[in-house]
Every structure is written in C-alpha cells, then in structure tokens.
Amino acid sequence: MDYLDKLTHLAQVRGEINICCEFQGEWQLVHHEQSNNKGIFHLIEEGECWLTLGDKPFHLTQGDIFFLPQNRPHLVGSLPENGKNILPNKRRQGIFEVQKIGRGTPDLKMFCGVFYYQENTLLMASLPDYLHLNLCDTSIQLLVQLFLQEAKKQESGNQSVIDSLANVLFIYILRHAISLGMIERGVLYALQDKRLNPVLIRLLQAPAQNWHIEQLADLAAMSRANFIRVFQQQVGMPPGKFLTKVRLDLAAFLLKHSQKNVLAIALEVGYQSEAHFSKAFKNAYQISPSLYRKV
Fold it and tell me: What does the alpha-carbon distance between residue 263 and residue 266 come to, in Å, rounded to a whole number?
C-alpha cells in the first residue's frame, strides 16, 4: 500500500455521485452548507457555468471538475454576477436525483457528488480550499467517460459501480493536483520533499514501531535539530504529533472496520495499555473508543 492509498485508507474516504443537473436559461443556486467531514464536487458534462467562492468567480466548462474539500458555501449560476436564486424541479431517475431548470434543451449538464471522510485527518488537512481541474486530455477523462456511460444505464449494480468510480476519481484528482503543484501544505506537500519522503513513508507504514527522533533524522540524512525544524515547517506539526496522529487515525479506522477489541487495537497501533490509548483517543476525538465504534 503506497502513501496515497494509506492516507485515503486512514481518512476513510467514501464517494458518491448522486445528482444530475439539467439547466436551461438563466439560473443560480446557492450552496450554504459547510462541513468538516464532507466535500462536494461539480463535474461538467456539457455546457458551461460560473461558480463563485467568496468573491472569486470561476468559469467552468465541459470537462471541468471543481472540488470543495470542506464543502464551503458557494454560488453556481449561468452568469458570473449574482442573480435570483431559482429552485430546480427534482425527480428520481434510477440512482440519481435529477434537478431540472427550464423547459428547453439543457444548456448545462452537470453531475454533483460527495466525498465523505473522517474529519481532521492528515489527508484532508493537506487539501486546499478548492481544486479546479480540467480533465480533458488527461487519464482521468477515460474514467469520467466510463462513469457517464454507466450513468446512462439502468442496470443492476449501477449504484455500486458509480460509487466505486467516485472512489477512484478521488485518487485521480489527488494525483493530478499533486502533479500540477496545487498541494501546498500538510503531509501531501511534505511527501514531495526528497528528505522527508522516506521518513513519512516509514511512519505511515509502521506507526506502531518505537520511533526515536535520532532514527528519523538519520532516515532523512539530516541533523536532529535541522530535521525537527524542516519537519515542522513542511508538515505543519512536530514529528511526535504526526506519529500520534497516524496511530489514532489508524485506530479510528480499525474501530469502524474490524471486530478487534479496544486493547488489541491499542497494541496494534503502538500503545502499551488500553488506558493510555483511550485517553489519547478521547483527547483527539472528544469521544471514547467504545462510543466512537457505535456512532
């Protein structure tokens, strides 16, 4: 499992594509919601529109995807300036909620989806407020075409196929954003540093190991003081806090996705006692491990 797989795994990312928009004429929709454990995206199949985030307008055209990791409030409309909010007509069509504005041939066809994740994870803390990408002439375009073909079918297993494609789309979005240098903070940014990359990989792969600063500095081929300084600067937290975060994110995953008892999980992620682990977990998540498993 490479670092992107591992971080996605720890963040418990789960994707859905569940809304199909068909809009004609002049229109505007306001998205008020903001969330710490859900990001949304808009994928333009045909046509164009404008998205306004804060006071910044973005022109979206065919093949564009706009991803808001924290689902920040925003406007989407046919024009760059603010207009009257119009509520679309909604109906179910297969697995999609179809939202329609206007009676003529749609000027815009757009799919909207959601990525759910565990809040405050290392991966999501690395992402910017938004990612605006054009997928035309990229490897992601083939994935989008496969999704569009599947969306037009009404066959058994549609939901599972499309949700699985959404999970793959999430990875492709991150790959593309990293390749374009759009990630400028957190662990994803630090992993591009040749000195810190081997350190971060080892911590992600073996968080239960009894790591010492001197070992990590040796892996980075740096002095102890310089390593601590660079790690803090690039990752945004000291090495000890990062290791604790990896251990607790892994524990959260195991609590949700395994039948292991709390003590077994505590030992697996590097804690020597259930009491010590439970205290650290509650400090991070404001809930005990046992209650976290139930919610």
Answer: 5
Q: Which residues pair with 17 in a beta bridge?
A: 113
Q: Phi and psi of 98, rounded to 5°?
A: -90, 125
User: How far apart (Å, rounded) are the C-alpha atoms in residues 257 and 149?
Assistant: 32
Rounded-to-integer distance, Cα 20 and Cα 93, Å: 9
Tokens of 151: 């969306």
Q: From start to end of 54-148, where are the E strands?
A: 56-61, 64-68, 74-77, 89-93, 96-101, 108-116, 131-134
Q: The domain 3-183: what is its CATH number?
A: 2.60.120.10
Structural domain 193-294, CATH architecture: Orthogonal Bundle (1.10)
The model's pLDDT over 46-100, given as tens digits with 9 standing for 90+, comes to 999 999 998 899 999 999 999 999 989 999 999 988 778 888 999 988 888 999 9
Domain range summary for the chain, segments of one domain joined by +: 3-183, 193-294
Q: What is the C-alpha separation between 198 and 196, in angstroms, rounded?
A: 6
- Give the chain's largest Cα–Cα span: 68
For residue range 162-173, list pLDDT tens digits in order: 889 899 999 999
pTM of this structure: 0.90
Residues 220 and 179: their CA atoms lie apart, in Å, by 23
DSSP 3-state of 53: strand
Say what percent of the chain tops pLDDT 90.
76
- Phi, psi (degrees; rounded to nearest 5) at 112: -125, 140
Q: What is the pLDDT of residues 201-219, one digit of tens each?
A: 999 999 999 999 999 999 9
106 touches 46 (CB < 8 A): yes
Distance CA 268, CA 270 (A): 6
The answer, yes or no, to whether residue 197 has pLDDT greater than 80, is yes
Q: How far apart are CA 138 and CA 156, in angstroms?
A: 30
Q: Say what the pLDDT of residue 204 is.
A: 96
